[in-house]
Write a structure and sequence with these properties.
Length: 219
């Protein structure tokens, strides 16, 4: 009798695991065929051949790109090269991407930029907020954009327990932002488990120097 119960429980567990695997494949569209589409008015921009994770555009036409994101389980086109921030003037007839120099003291070797956002202060100072995953951890880096020198001055690194798995960010002040956590956990294995079990534990967090709080819970 005990063996039958054990076999029955094992069968239920395997069925549940199989159902979760099929559901994951459907969500990821793993069986979908990708068709090539010809875009005649598009052309390759040198410097971002491998694509960009995020883009933010200033009113004057300057665009910032985060490039070089590395993430466990995802293919990297430049595994030995750290990430960076590129800038492009979209008002130019033939815009080209330029990599912005970052001030000394910032750890460029582990720079792994994800979502980005800009904020323009009352004195026209431009701040660039960058979600960073150094060694697959989670920080938000705040920079001041120095247009005359095509450079970024690093001002602050933000770490907080309510920012365990930051994906994107929206700046609303010189040191204030909203950020999305795409997972509840920061550990890679637990993240995979969240995804596999289809747990909707993402949230939105508001950060300021005086207050940090969850403002939205997913589902």
């Amino acid at each position: 009798m005990g063996r039958l119960v054990a076999v029955g429980l094992l069968g239920i567990a395997l069925a549940l695991l199989g159902e979760r695997l099929l559901a994951l494949r459907n969500r990821l569209k793993a069986s979908r065929e990708v068709e090539s589409v010809d875009l005649p008015h598009c052309h390759l921009i040198k410097g971002i051949e491998a694509g960009s994770e995020d883009i933010d555009i200033l009113p004057n036409g300057l665009a910032f790109f985060s490039v070089g994101l590395k993430f466990p389980g995802l293919h990297s086109f430049a595994p030995d090269k750290p990430g960076g921030i590129l800038m492009m003037d979209l008002k130019e007839e033939k815009p080209r991407a330029r990599e912005l120099r970052i001030s000394r003291g910032f750890d460029l070797a582990s720079f792994n930029p994800h979502g980005i956002s800009t904020f323009i202060d009352n004195d026209d100072t431009v701040y660039l907020f960058v979600v960073n995953h150094p060694e697959f951890k989670n920080t938000v880096e705040i920079f001041k954009f120095e247009e005359a020198e095509n450079s970024l001055l690093h001002l602050k690194t933000v770490k907080h327990e309510l920012l365990p798995s930051v994906n994107d960010i929206t700046a609303v002040g010189p040191a204030h932002f909203y950020a999305t956590n795409d997972h509840y956990f920061s550990d890679p294995f637990l993240k995979y488990l969240e995804t596999y079990l289809n747990l909707h534990w993402a949230n939105v967090v508001y950060y300021s120097p005086n207050e940090v709080k969850v403002v939205y819970l997913c589902c």
